[in-house]
Amino acid sequence: MSNLHPSLNYMKAAPFEVPATSSAAANNDRNVPSVEQLVLDLCNPDLRENALLELSKKRELFQDLAPLLWNSFGTLAALLQEIVSIYPVLSPPTLTPGQSNRVCNALALLQCVASHPDTRMVFLKAHIPLYLYPFLNTTSKTRPFEYLRLTSLGVIGALVKVDDTDVISFLLYTEIIPLCLRTMEMGSELSKTVATFIVQKILLDDVGLEYICATAERFFAVAGILSNMIIALAEQPSARLLKHIIRCFLRLSENLRACEALKNCMPEMLKDGTFSNCLLEDVTTRRWLQQLLHNVLGPRVAIQAGGSSCFASYYSTTDFCYNNTGEVSL
Q1: How far apart are CA 272 and CA 130, in angstroms?
Q2: 305 Cβ contact partners less than 8 Å away, ≥ 6 residues apart
Q3: For labelling alongside 122, which of 18, 74, 182, 321 has CA 20 to 30 A away?
Q4: How far apart are CA 328 and CA 251, in angstroms?
Q5: How many Å apart are CA 182 and CA 185, to the nearest integer?
Q6: Smallest Cα–Cα separation from 306: which of 291, 319, 324, 321?
Q7: Which residues of 292-305 are buried (b: 16+ CB within 10 A; e: fewer)?
Q8: Which residue from 244, 250, 127 is spatially nearest to 183, judged by alpha carbons?
Q9: SS3 of residue 94 by DSSP
Q10: Average pLDDT over the chain, rounded to whole?
Q11: pLDDT per residue as tens digits for the range 110-164
Q12: Helices (H) then strands (E): counts for the chain
């Protein structure tokens, strides 16, 4: 467990250490490899595991790590080698914690590349995200697989955080929606939240909304999973996840055919004030929900539907407004 990626919640706490003296600290600094050296070490199979761990820790500190990773000879090939090397343990599911930790460190570096403005589009044009899709297609609920899916979703989430129709078109063309729906159906709360965030960002793009609403099969696949999640949240509330589900429903309601369909298939729990307490502190999501009810049920019915909760007091057809934020922090 000593080589866990720092972003993983099940990483053990570091032991208490006595501060080093100034001379000892200076010697330690001289012994620490530079970022450039660590990138070179990625191409050495004997040094790669430590380099992956150290670079994943430093990625937030080194602004130009992504261009360095992308432009260094053999580095991306080494990262992809780490990814494809665990394909054989995906089915049957025999992925170990050590294997999961190591590949998640490689994925963290790919997320760095996906996030950087200078490397995002070349990363996409090289179709690197496709190497992650087999991880999102797994169904094992063990911890190694769950963190593998979560870190893979983080890479996709980094791509969609910046509004770009080319990114959305690529993800739609490569069938990311079914993979996200799978995670939304069986993942942990955090994985469900990131997957729903990705679907939300796709829906917020006009190309994405048109794609999902183009056929009844696509619409009901998405709406059905969202509805099932709402039912589950009634028993185990999560304000963060609920926020993204409501935003997805609201965006769907902005398509005429989808809005008509939602009149018959939108969960009753969104209409009867079930989540009033869950959203007490979230004015933005309350307004999104009230606008959703307004779009689907009409203004009078929407006010009646929210009348037993706190929603009605925040609703006005004359001064209603909302923003398009409310994103997961990746």
Answers
A1: 41
A2: 271, 272, 273, 293, 297, 311
A3: 182
A4: 17
A5: 5
A6: 291
A7: bbbbbbeeeebbeb
A8: 244
A9: coil
A10: 85
A11: 999 999 999 999 999 999 999 999 999 999 999 999 999 999 999 999 999 999 9
A12: 18, 0
Concatenated DSSP letters for 178-216? HHHHHHHHHS-HHHHHHHHHHHHHHHHSHHHHHHHTSSH
CA dihedral sign of residues 270, 276, 278, 281: positive
DSSP labels, 130-185:
GGGHHHHT----SHHHHHHHHHHHHHHHHHHTS--HHHHHHHHHTTHHHHHHHHHH
Neighbours of 116 (CB within 10 A): 18
Residue 92, preceding peptide bond in cis (omega within 30° of 0): yes
**What are the phi and psi torsion angles at 276 (to 5°)?**
-55, -50
Cβ 238 vs Cβ 189: under 8 Å: yes
Query: What pLDDT score was predicted for residue 11?
Result: 35
The residue with tokens 């890479």 is 155
> Residue 103 corresponds to which amino acid?
V
Reading the block at residue 78, the tokens are 């080494």
Cα 327 to the center of its chain, rounded Å: 10
| Degrees to nearest 5, angle at CA 268 with 263 and 271 | 85
pLDDT digit string, tens, across residues 231-265: 999 999 999 999 999 999 999 999 999 999 999 99
3-class SS at 22? helix
HSE (CB half, 13 Å, CA atoms) of 267?
23
Check if the beta carbon of residue 114 is closer than 8 Å to that of residue 158: yes
Query: Who has greater pLDDT, 311 or 59?
Result: 59
In Å, how far from its chain's centre is CA 329?
Answer: 9
Nearest to 72 by CA among 106, 109, 42: 42
For residues 24-45, average pLDDT:
75
Q: How many residues does the chain have?
A: 330
List the structure tokens of 98. Answer: 């050590």
